[in-house]
Amino acid sequence: MTIPMTDAFDLRSQLNDPELLQEAALINGAWVARADMAVIDPATGATLGHMPDCSAEETSAAIDAAAAAMPSWRARTHAERADILMAWYQLMHDHIEDLALILTAEQGKPLAEAKGEILYGASFVRWFAEEARRIDGSIIPSPVPGKKIFALKEPVGVCAIITPWNFPNAMITRKVAPGLAAGCTMVIKPSDFTPYSALALGVLAARAGIPEGVLNIVTGRPEEIGATLTGSPVVRKLSFTGSTRVGALLAEQCAPTLKKMSLELGGNAPFIVFDDADLEAALEGAMASKFRNGGQTCVCANRILVQSGIHDRFVAGLAARVDALRVGNGREAGVEIGPMINAAALDKINAHVADALEKGATRVTAPRALPAQFADPVVLSGATMQMRFAQEETFGPVAPILRFETEAEALEIANGTPFGLAAYFYTTDMKRAFRFGEALEVGLVGLNTGAVSHAEAPFGGVKSSGLGREGAQEGIEEYLETKAFHFAGL
Predict the structure, then answer these.
(1) CATH number of the domain at 269-454, please?
(2) In the prediction, which pLDDT does 7 show?
(3) How many CA atoms lie within 13 A of 4 on its CB side?
(4) From 489's CA, which of 51, 155, 255, 332 has a CA 20 to 30 Å away?
(5) Active-site residue (options: 106, 264, 336, 393)
(6) Tell me, what's the pLDDT at 8?
(7) pLDDT averaged over the chain?
(8) Where in the chain are the domains?
(9) CATH of 11-265+465-485, one of 3.40.50.300, 3.20.20.70, 3.40.605.10, 3.30.200.20
(10) What is the per-residue pLDDT across 66-88, written as a single tens digit (0 to 9) for each?
(11) Which stretches make up the Aldehyde dehydrogenase domain (predicted)?
């Protein structure tokens, strides 16, 4: 275990390019400075800096700026938009050290993970820069002589983007890059826990040549900003990543204006290990899926199901790996688990662990004495479906392990939740691989892998885990409308 730094961290002085740290909203190309909300370092509780708490008026100004910029941006050729996005992509790579440090300072994840997120986020910009050149339509054979029908792909319009704190860089690029590639303009509302990563992207976007008003960033509390975005008839699409409860509320607020919506919501991913699995591969996958970002990911393994024949060896192997994890301030070398985002997150994690222990689970990892804001990574054996984690997302470094006997039992447990974002399973039986994978009620399946997110692949859930897809060709379709154009008299 490492001990977190206790002194206030002067983030600006540590950056190679201090201009990347902005304490102002970005509206129509201008930095609107009214920094009245603190941004907290989750590792120490110290104030990193401040940001504006934008009002409805400022949010409306951002919407108006996006609307005014829309005609000229959509009129650019696909190749022009692609070139600008590629310039933005290159700037992210050029400034990876600063972007990662900003991310770690406000979110907490270890620097190595933060750099990985910057690369991951940039990959969406590159992918959709390439996709911009491939937006096309079709010619439909007409049933009437002398007539032609064209199906044209056009940008949706002004888009509102609401992003979470757990991936404050990549959740923006995954949404914004396809929208910009399609010819849409944006109003981004980042999490009030992690605004600086979004604002740094805004700095680089301007340097890349994204025109004033095309990309706007409003910071602050979600209630007033969100109500303005959802209530505006000018905003034609909303993309949100967050909880199912908030997603449902946003959908209700968007209903009167019939906005197009993309919702990536809660998950309760099962991680299933069959007796015939490669044990080492399964353990590596469990560590990656469960403990990446301290378990604070939407596709995090929330329930680990292990078949009886391999159960005891898996539990022992996972416990040894978890006991070896280094917990501490993400800015310290070698740290693998940083702080949780806030006290409420830690309270939920501790409540889930206490509930499991009260209902018969056994802790198989050594307890640690950790400072406030740091969750103790734990493996629990003897978990059951009667425990809170079975129906709730823990969002922390807790690995509850359920023993199962048959494939049918594993499938029933895996699908026995209202959520359907991701699922993972390990087997060397290819007949089972297809049979079981197709029966899982999720949008993302990982077979013998703990990683299920790439720019090239569609990402999204079913059931209460959301609507729409991000990434891949599907990602840009979310920002396009199809217009049927009928020509007669030919």
Answers:
(1) 3.40.309.10
(2) 59
(3) 29
(4) 155
(5) 264
(6) 73
(7) 96
(8) 11-265+465-485, 269-454
(9) 3.40.605.10
(10) 999 999 999 999 999 999 999 99
(11) 31-484
